[in-house]
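Side project, low priority. Logging it here so it doesn't get lost.
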Amino acid sequence: MMEPVRRIVDGRRAGTVQGLMDAAVEEVRAVGFPEMSVRSVAKRAGVSPATAYTYFASKEHLICAVVWQKLQELPEHRPGDPGAKGRDIAGTVRTVARVFSEEPEMTRAYTTALLADDPEVNRLRDQIGMEIATRLTHALGPADRPAADGITMAFVGGMLLAGMGYLSFEDLADRLAAIAEMFQAVGAGPITPARSGRQHRN
């Protein structure tokens, strides 16, 4: 599994990283994302700012790591019968959307952090996008590339609208289920999701 932090951690260091992510959630709840800082999170976690910056480049990186971990904790997708594509997509969307919609303050934090232009955020955003795309395409079933890309792009756009308050997460699931039903699955095997996020030059 990819490490959401700047260096590989294990043992006691893994406990420090987990403590920082837990403290980040508590800090957002207490003061909101605009007022949160890596230093304030470090203080809440009982570690030095230098230790926090060893693992997280910015507060946006820290919040994206929280998103990544929550997605990894979701149950594996279990597809239904072949005729239940719309319901399968809706169930998957609702499962993923709960990560982003449990608390208003956290939703605002996630939406802002994921849009940050930061190398570590870019790396995690790619992984988060690939994780979501994999879940969506598994729910969609065997499909061609346009169908897979279309449903994934619809999800990403819908998540942005929901995060900004223009669309409820419940409506997002229903609308995406309707969109999925418009796609006619073709092909004989599973598809590999396209890489999410911007492409970087070496």
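Brief comment: The mean pLDDT is 78.
Revisit when time allows.
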